[in-house]
Every structure is written in structure tokens, then in C-alpha cells.
Amino acid sequence: MDWQEISGNWVLVPPRPTAIVHFLGGAFVAAAPQVTYRALLEFLAEQGYVVVATPFVNTFDHEAIARQVARAFEQTLNYLQNRVLKRRYLPIYGVGHSMGCKLHLLIGSILQQERAGNVFVSFNNFPARRSIPFFEQFSQFSSAFDVEFTPSPLETFRLIERHYLVQRNLLIQFTADDIDQTGSLMEVMLRRFPDLTTLHTLKGNHLTPLGQDLKWQTGSAFTPLDAIGQFMRQEVFRDFNHLKRTMLLWMNPLASM
Predict the structure, then answer these.
(1) Which helix (H) or strand (E) holds 224?
(2) How far is CA 226 from CA 73, 215, 240, in A?
(3) Domain boundaries of the chain, sorted by first residue
């Protein structure tokens, strides 16, 4: 399988697709998801999922970004259904990491888009002051920096609780993730769809979904430091593989790895 660009999205189409994944990444790594999330997305394609990864650049207007990525996805979906899938119906899952979770939540709250379910990994909904590096320092010198994301964190939760339409949801948080807000999202989702919302807490951190390999070059002699490096590499892959297995089994309970 090779990556192809369709209507601004990066797409993988397996030989015998069984479902479609619309992927949205985190704020500072979402501009090139086919690179930053390559391991995770190619794994999903190997399991039979058409992957449509929509890049975006973060701004303060998150609702506008949500509408933009939704339009881009629909354009690519229309192309795939006409040229590749031949109008064959496949269920669609939204998968988001960090800010990508918020965008899928907004799409599910303000737009009428069909989803078989959504997967939210390391949900983040912090205000601008905490999300943007050096924002606090700049805002001290100019009122022009006294701004907030649209919708704000509080407005986002209100939208979800009142209007979010996707009933089946998987929430994933990691034990060593100090910027995760999945617990707050879980409270809201349980009020919205208590019987169809699932939470998993896995080992890992906020960067685990990127699944990047740790290159550890040993010297001529194997040292205790080399042993620590190899142990860290094994731990990273163990956490990443657990994430992949958790996502896959939720989307397809009959799947095996």
C-alpha cells in the first residue's frame, strides 16, 4: 500500500477494505499525519481500514478547523465511493489524538456526519493560556493576546452534553500523560451516552500514539547503558502495541493480532 493525496487528505486503501477511519492528530504534529503517525495509520490499513488522515494547522478558531477538516474528508469520501469502493457501504470511525479528539467532538456536535463510533486518545481541552508556549508572557504586555479558543473549553463541554450525536465511543488515557483531560470528557460522555461509552487506561504517555522507533546504537561492547536503552525501546513498543490492540478490538471485536 502506498500513501496517496486526495483533496488535501493523506489516504491508504487496503486491498479488501472493511471500514473507514477518519484520523485527526494533535495540534503540533497534525500538519503531516502520514509522517508523524505513520506506524499507527499503516497498522490500521493492514487490518483492513481505509485511512483518511486530514492535516490541519492550529488556529484559535477550532470550530472553523472542524468544519474545514469535515469538508475535506467528505470530498475524499465521495471520491473513494465513486472511484474505489464503487458505492459499497463501509462503516466510518473517527479517530483523534489530543486536539484531534476535540475536532471530532465538534464535528459530532455541530455537523450531521454518520459515524459508527469515535475513538478519543489523550483528549486535551486546555485553554489557550496553557496550550500555547509563552502565551502567558506575551499576554502580560498586550491585551491583543488576551484571547481564547472558539469554542472555549467550557463551551466545548456544553456543546457535547447537549448536541453530540455519535453514540458509541472509546476513550483512551495513559498513566504517564500529565496533559490528558480524558477524565473530564468521560464525565460529560457518561451523561450523554452512559451505556455506549468505554474508558481504557493504558501504560504510556501523550506521545505513545506516534509510535516512533527509538534508535539505540550500541558500541563495540554491550554496556549497562545499552541495556537501559534497549529496555526503554521495548517499553515504548509494548505500550504502542497495547494501544493498537485496544483500538482494534473495540472497532472489531472479532479481530486478532
Answers:
(1) helix 224-251
(2) 44, 11, 21
(3) 4-213
- Comparing CA positions, the residue from 121, 112, 131 lying closest to residue 41 is 121
Using an 8 Å Cβ cutoff, are 122 and 97 in contact? Answer: yes
Q: Where are the alpha helices (DSSP H) in 47-175?
A: 62-83, 99-110, 128-131, 135-139, 153-163
Give me the torsion for CA of 131, 134, 140, 145, rounded to 10°. -60
Residue type, 45: A
Question: What is the fold, at CATH topology level, of the domain defined by 4-213?
Answer: Rossmann fold (3.40.50)
CB 174 within 8 A of CB 206: yes
Cell of 232: 526503554
10-residue stretch averages of pLDDT, the chain, 257 residues long: 95 96 95 96 98 96 97 97 89 97 98 94 84 48 65 96 97 96 97 97 96 54 48 68 97 77
Residue 216 pLDDT: 40
Vertex 176: Cα angle to 43 and 93 (nearest 5): 35
Which pLDDT belongs to residue 179? 93
pTM equals: 0.88
pLDDT, position 234:
53
